[in-house]
Amino acid sequence: TETQLLRKLSNTPLQVEIELLRTISHDAKNVDAEHLESFYVSFADIKDRFYDGMIITGAPVENLDFAEVDYWPELCEIMEWSKTHVHSTFHICWGAQAGLYYHYGIQKHSLPKKMFGIYSHHILEPNSPFFRGFDDTFNAPHSRYTEIRAEDIARVPELELLSVSDEAGVFAVKNRKSRQFFIFGHPEYDRETLALEYRRDIAKGKDIAVPAHYFPDDDPTKEPRMTWRAHAQLMYTNWLNYYVYQT
Hints:
- The model has no long low-confidence stretch (mean pLDDT 94).
- The chain is of the alpha/beta class.
- Helix content is 32%, strand content 25%.
- The chain is globular, with a radius of gyration of 18 Å.
- It has helices at residues 2-10, 33-39, 43-46, 72-85, 94-104, 150-154, 193-203, 229-245, and strands at 20-21, 40-41, 51-56, 86-92, 109-123, 137-147, 159-165, 169-175, 180-183.
- The strands form 2 sheets. A 7-stranded mixed beta sheet has the order 3-4-9-8-7-5-6. Strands 1-2 form a two-stranded parallel sheet.
């Protein structure tokens, strides 16, 4: 995740300085503790600072109620702080669901099966700088068991629905001040990321379908097609340029 996001942020003319933030209240099981100590800061380290942009990433906890996540109180404190200390915040997947729930009271809903694959999206706000340079339709990966519904977004006047997929539902939402963005896919994913997730779940004995629209002929022995890289890069570039740097 670090590498994927840094790759997107570094491919612009802007000079971007990065700090990596971790939640102290969570005991990471899949990351070396020494790595976190060496490269990450805690909220206590940075709470008096101000930032141009912030990215709140996804996490594989979406089947839990928000309050059941061990670091939920700490994340709420960080999200509240972001309203006054960050110019524009970019929430990804579960991070987007958490952000909409915390800031606007919008609940996530369980899906009958995992939304898993590469899906086509269309743009509802074609004049938005967020989509400057985009084609009429674009692809992006999804990997989640829950969703946010468009009708719930529509009930909140402060929010603007930017892009949806006929298959995957809501993709991009922002608040009207452009201080908060909520993305429900994973445009930052590499070519192999969904394949690795698929093989991991198969190895765990999970009942998981082959990722949709991803492997040629839906054959997981073939190399997956990369059909979203250009638009993913453009999305991060537009956010950094139009909503962080220029404003």
